[in-house]
## 1
Amino acid sequence: MSQARQQQLEIEDEIGPSNLEKSKKSKVNLGSDFSDDEDQSSDDGEPVEDVYYENINIDEDDERALQMFMSKDAAPMRTLADIIMEKLTEKKTEIETQFSDAGTIQLQDLDPRVKAMYEGVRDVLAKYRSGKLPKAFKLVPTLKNWEQILYITDPTKWSAAAMYQGTRIFASNLKDKMAQRFYNLVLLPRIRDDLAEYKKLNFHLYQALRKALYKPAGFMKGILLPLLESGTCTLREATIIGSVIANNSIPILHSSAAILKIAEMDYTGANSIFLRIFLDKKYALPYRVVDGVVFHFLR
């Protein structure tokens, strides 16, 4: 305590007591522009005029500063298409098999009529804006080889509204591990591509992120942790995805596990943003998690 008082006196000597009070009162509030209301849309499915958040302007200097803290050996992100094509190449003679390194992708011969039907679904999803979805698409989560069928529909070409509807269906009907794979191989690459291209997140994609929290374990393991482990999470991505976490309720065990995993990673600016957002939710954290965070900042 004496050391703290001595440091405070030194700071007051340098910047003055009035400036010190101002600096104490000022604080950063990420995601304050985001509304916590449920889906805001009109009867025809189109979003209302009120947007979820204002455009977040981030200085190029801040972006460059954050890049200095990022991991230099970040691995390239894999998508569902990459894994499917890799498996088709490796296992042409053993189509019906279960792969250990890529999870539980099941590949099998498809009836040409089934393939043609889902190619038609692909064309619908590429232009979808609102209204009813094809019934065949709603059946995809119940299929054993759902990832292969999903690949035929070409998720990279889905409209933003179709991505939201797809996330809603898959989050409701898939188990945690399967939802995690959908989030990681389909939703996360689309979110990152949209932010990289337009510098802000589409309304429907932001809604998709909120729906993804319906499976909190899948959200943490399929979106948050892979994003931070990639070492290329930008300040804009951390701000917007962090606002989803800040404005929605998450069970304490899932949040505690995420905090512990982030604390075990090397320091980056994005990691600290997410740690602060989780800590601001004021959970009664287990001692092991508190220790992990303390050791993280001591390092």
## 2
Amino acid sequence: MTHDHHHNQEGNIKIAFFLNIGFTVLEFFGGLYVNSVAIISDALHDLGDSISLGLSWYLDHKSKQGANRSFTFGYTRFSLLGALINSLVLIAGSIFVINEAVARIITPEHTDAQGMLIFAIIGVSVNGYAAWKVSHGKTLNEKVISWHLLEDVLGWAAVLIVSIVLIFQDIHYLDPALSILITAYVLWNVIKRLKETLYVFLQGSPDDVSVEELESKFLEKDFVDETKHLHLWSLDGERHVFTAHLILQGVSDYSEIIEAKKEIRKILKPYNFSHSTIEIELDSETSSLIEDNHTT
């Protein structure tokens, strides 16, 4: 079952990738042909999505590789590199498009409304089908891609409406104005995603787990005297890593230390950490007591 699901996931991303990259090339040259900066702006947006889909497809294969001496946590963190590259491409493209759109508003040019209409219909159809295919997935990766493609569908729906308006009323600034709105919306979301990516890169603590909450739960146990060096970070924004040193008190032999470890693992279990390491230390009184018992 797992193998079938993984195969379907890879197949859905593969279909979405080829649909997206093919249509990106078509709409870029089509945007130049109909003289629509809005279509060109969406082509650059789609290029970023194509890069994202391509990297997701590649990383889906890469993630099968286990840990080795070079990457002891495995290849999970490679997905962050893909997110960073994708964000930088989209930001660069967005700046270029906004610059072109502003120039078009200052110096208006005629747009082929009928050509825009044809591309808009194709755009809604192609991106709609790709979004539908990926929306069947259960993984976080597929869900994120589905949202990206849904943004494309909404963008093309806006182009469709504008093209219909332009057929009846030739308002020159409407196309570049739409381009700025689409690009600003995309840029706002990309910057948010870039901030999140950089936060994970810098090993910031995940928002969905509280170090203070974990520390409090440890200290509720009578056998925990003190906590030190609690560290929490994320490999990719989804798989988290936790390490801590706990100083025990009131234990009289090694069997109680084993039981204490079991209780600590019970505390950590609901959090589903990808990796967790707990270093057990003893206070001086407990340590000397156990050593005396061991010697005896």
## 3
Amino acid sequence: MTEYETITLSLIVKPKGEPIFSERSTIIGMTDEASVPFVTIRQKNDDILAGEIRMDSSDWKPIREAIEIMINICETQDKSINPEP
């Protein structure tokens, strides 16, 4: 029987009560382009310039916490792919 694992690829930080596709949603993700996993941060907002993230000061703490969680997930994932000798 094949063994499987579950990997978390993204977290969404949004104001409580708003949908996940809200223009105030921020997606903290993990991407791996065949090297080391890294964190991406993006928003689904057509009004912002490519690569720009906008947030109120009240948004920073939950976004920062999600980034820290995803960094830990990346480090764990990297160690499972590239174990130290």
